[in-house]
Amino acid sequence: MNKTRLIFFFFAVWSLVFSGAHAMEAGEALSDPHREARARALCAKVKCPTCQGQCIDDSNARLAADLRRFIRQAVEGGASDASILSALTATYGKEVLFEPAWEKETLVLWTAPFIFLFVCAGMWGYKRRRHL
User: Fold this and answer.
1) What are the beta bridge partners of residue 47?
2) Is the pLDDT assigned to residue 106 strictly greater than 90?
């Protein structure tokens, strides 16, 4: 039992130490903390086109580093968040964003969880009424 606790403790400490690790290169951060926080928030919204399901802030891919630099240059240049994200979607497609926009094509994506929940609640209610 003691060995199990030691292994659990090791993995807990390991995950705490490396959970905040980002793939940023030295000197990549902006000098203004407000702009850096804005750039980080934007990087968290963008998927790496070469990695599967990983944001560009956590990716070590060369393309992710280029996209991080692009975002930081745009933030430094005074571009709005919407214009930065629209430039990225124009180049890499809508799939580059973790949260797709409200459009006709994505309506099913946004409403499917609620429809599923409604159907499950209806089935549960029907079964419950039937058994009473």
Assistant:
1) 55
2) no
Per-residue pLDDT reduced to its tens digit, 41-56: 999 999 998 887 888 9
Within this chain, do residues 95 and 108 fall inside the same structural domain, yes or no? no
Amino acid at site 62: R
Q: Rounded to whole angstroms, how far apart are CA atoms 23 and 43?
A: 11
- Beta carbons within 8 Å of 94's beta carbon, 6+ residues apart: 100, 101, 106
CB 65 within 8 A of CB 25: yes
Residue 85 lies in a domain: yes
The single-letter code of the amino acid at 107 is L
Rounded to an integer, what is the distance from CA 94 to the centroid of its chain?
A: 14
Same domain, 123 and 97: no
33 plus 87 within the same structural domain: yes
